[in-house]
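re: the backbone from monday

yeah here it is again, tokenized this time
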């Protein structure tokens, strides 16, 4: 079982920035693709960004150029730097240790991001 703990969410005005962090337990971190997902009220959870063990990144079109995913293997931590935030970025953000291209079974409690207009 993988334990994930997200932090860094909050309330920010449109155009502002936040940096999310996710600490992952266990020794699997360095071998797994890590990803950030988000879920807005009434909507399905969606993939925001991912980063492979080889540091290849991928982004949803809606966040390209504004969000940056990174990882620090020595700290078992994955980050999501979010700039130029928009009200439509409002959601609970979750990190996940992927199984290939699919999300792993374990999720953290998430961190709420609210962007006011």
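seq for it, each position gets an aa:
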């Amino acid at each position: 079982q993988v334990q994930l703990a997200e932090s860094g969410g909050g309330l920010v005005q449109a155009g502002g920035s936040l940096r999310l962090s996710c600490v992952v337990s266990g020794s699997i971190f360095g071998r797994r693709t890590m990803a950030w997902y988000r879920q807005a009220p009434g909507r399905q959870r969606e993939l925001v960004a991912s980063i492979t063990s080889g540091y290849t990144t991928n982004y949803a079109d809606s966040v390209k150029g504004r969000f940056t995913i990174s990882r620090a293997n020595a700290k078992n931590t994955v980050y999501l730097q979010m700039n130029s935030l928009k009200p439509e970025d409002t959601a609970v953000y979750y990190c996940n240790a992927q199984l290939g291209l699919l999300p792993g079974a374990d999720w953290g409690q998430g961190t709420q991001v609210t962007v006011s207009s």
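The radius of gyration is 13 Å. The mean pLDDT is 95.
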